[in-house]
Design goal:
Largest sheet: 8 strands, parallel, barrel
Number of helices: 12
CATH class: Alpha Beta
Strand content: 15-25%
Oligomer: single chain
CATH topology: TIM Barrel
Order of helices and strands: EEEHHEHEHEEEHEHEHEHHHEHH
Strand order of the largest sheet: 3-4-5-6-9-10-11-12
Number of domains: 1
Number of strands: 12
């Protein structure tokens, strides 16, 4: 498995990452034996980046990942990232809230620190909706709180999830202490990599290039649009709710829009739209790792096989953008 630099952090991560979220469901609702088998296979394939969060299964993802890594004695072989989603509080609330959340995550993981700790709230120019933090708060109190847990040795690096207002997100990615960003990027909405190519959805205005120029590590999320890029509404039994309109489109709309990918993948000589979508994500310059959430071992095997074929060639990327 190809290893790539995580921005300017000095950390190397696998080009294909292991998403432990509730959308795939394996690490939140899967059987312990299946979880162990999948993590073992991932490690054998050279996957080194594992991404979880306190919100995934109300802590179940962190607990299950921690258990499996301890059983395998594998913590020293991987890079792990987790996240905090903050409620909006009174001035001065962020420092305690960030530390308490991270300490709880560390207990569930069974670790003394994490490699990457992400703010998981959307960022807005102002506070507009539930869960959204305004830019001033993020660059002020929250940034200070993240820097504090890094100084305390609880997190080696800190970053954020690049959702919310596109202008606000670009301001955060250029600011300290943020070292990484999780970028929404896929064949249905590639605007984080190619400004203006939003497919009628939110334009993320070239976030990946902005991040790369600032030396930030880029972790691609939703590269398969929660599975919609298969072009089929069918989901695995343990797969979770794909959620609301992340990136500006509902899941059912993404499935309908993905139907065109089947002919395109076939025309490029690829196995499936899933291969097309994954290798498209790997092809964008500046991307450190591409996360895939898994429901089954077969999902993992497919992702490994496609990732080992390497990034999509430039001419194929051009055809995707023109489609």
């Amino acid at each position: 498995m190809e290893q790539r630099p995580l921005g300017s952090t000095g950390v190397q991560v696998s080009a294909l990452g292991f998403g432990c979220g509730a959308v795939g469901g394996l690490m939140t609702r899967g059987a312990p034996a299946d979880q162990r088998q999948a993590v073992t296979r991932a490690l054998d394939a050279g996957i080194t980046y594992f991404d979880t969060a306190a919100q995934y299964g109300d802590g179940a993802s962190e607990e299950n990942l921690g258990r499996v890594m301890r059983e395998l004695g594998a913590w020293q072989r991987v890079v792990v990232g987790t996240k905090v989603r903050l409620p909006r509080g009174e001035p001065g609330w962020a420092s305690a809230a960030v530390r308490e959340s991270l300490q709880a995550s560390l207990r569930r993981l069974g670790r003394s620190d994490v490699d990457v700790f992400h703010l998981h709230n959307p960022v807005g120019l102002t506070h507009t909706d539930r869960g959204v933090l305004d830019l001033e708060t993020v660059l002020g109190e929250v940034a200070t709180a993240l820097a504090e847990v890094k100084t305390a040795g609880l997190a080696r690096h800190v970053g954020f999830t690049g959702l919310g207002d596109s202008t606000a997100v670009r301001e955060v990615v250029k600011s300290e202490p943020f070292e990484t960003v999780q970028a929404y990027f896929n064949v249905l909405n590639p605007s984080a990599g190619f400004t203006g190519r939003s497919g009628g959805q939110q334009d993320f205005e070239g976030l990946i290039d902005t991040a790369a120029l600032a030396g930030r590590g880029v972790i691609v999320i939703r590269v398969l649009a929660a599975g919609a890029t298969s072009g089929s509404p069918e989901r695995a039994a343990i797969a979770g709710d794909p959620g609301g309109a992340i990136g500006g489109s509902e899941y059912s709309d993404d499935v309908a829009r993905a139907s065109r990918l089947k002919d395109l993948a076939r025309g490029l000589g690829l196995d499936s739209p899933i291969e097309l979508a994954l290798r498209f994500g790997l092809a964008k310059s500046g991307v450190s790792t591409v996360l895939v959430g898994y429901s089954t071992l077969d999902h993992l095997e497919q992702a490994i096989r496609f990732a080992e074929r390497g990034p999509l060639p430039n001419d194929a990327v051009a055809r995707v953008l023109a489609s």
